Amino acid sequence: MTTARVNGIALHYQEAGTGEPLLLLHGLGSRSDDWEMQLPAFAGRYRVIAPDLRGHGRSAKPPGPYSVPMMAADVLGLLDHLNVTAAHVVGLSMGGMIAFQLAVDCPARVRSLTIVNSGPALVARTVGEWLRVQQRLLLARFSGPTRTGHFLSRRLFPKPEQEALRAQFIERWSANDPAAYLASLRALVGWSVLERVGEITCPVLVISGDRDYTPVETKRAYTALIPRARLVIVEDSGHATPIDQAERFNASVLEFLSGS
């Protein structure tokens, strides 16, 4: 187990490979282990760093409130600890939000940005969006991690042949600390750097599963605001694209990084 003392908390991380630093930021309720299909593929060319974010996995789970800038500061502290001046950053869902925060606040630390099934804001703009946010908050508050894991697994991996992925997801999700998970979720609600994404000058790849929660058109709209960004749509994929379409995802990221 590798742990760094960052911003007053213990932050667990995995590291593999050599070369330019490549930082992998997982999603809400996830952990670095969920990059298991990416670590071997990327470590052949890059120094891959995959932390368990605050409140997740084997990292510390201090009482809330949390915020996206706070979690971004944790990541910067880890890069400082590892003597990494700048890294390629890949962020899934919540990790994508943290990646956006890094890119607008500390652009010199971000060589390139890969945003996966995420966006630069989580602000409900319609009744439907507000209801979805409230549903997640209610699940987190009253259902517990195991029940929530069962509910989410069927949305993430709906196919009969994905039973093993559902079972693994439920097992890992059930290990979440309820208070830390709720604090992390609350950190995302209402957060936005949308008005600043036009400032991002590094190369940006936006990856969207065609069945992701957020419509592709929403991602297309914010991608158009970023000077050096392009959008890739992965077919037959939901929110967990690095898992349900790992081969296509890995190839898209490596191709992008080779030209960044």
UniProtKB/TrEMBL annotation:
Source organism, top-level taxon: Bacteria
Cellular component, GO, one term: membrane
Cited Pfam families: Abhydrolase_1
Signal peptide positions (record): none
Stored InterPro entries: AB_hydrolase_1 (IPR000073), AB_hydrolase_fold (IPR029058), AB_hydrolase_sf (IPR050266)
Record key words, sorted: Hydrolase
PANTHER family: HYDROLASE, PUTATIVE (AFU_ORTHOLOGUE AFUA_2G14860)-RELATED (PTHR43798:SF33), MONOACYLGLYCEROL LIPASE (PTHR43798)
Protein name: Alpha/beta hydrolase family protein
Organism, as annotated: Candidatus Promineifilum breve
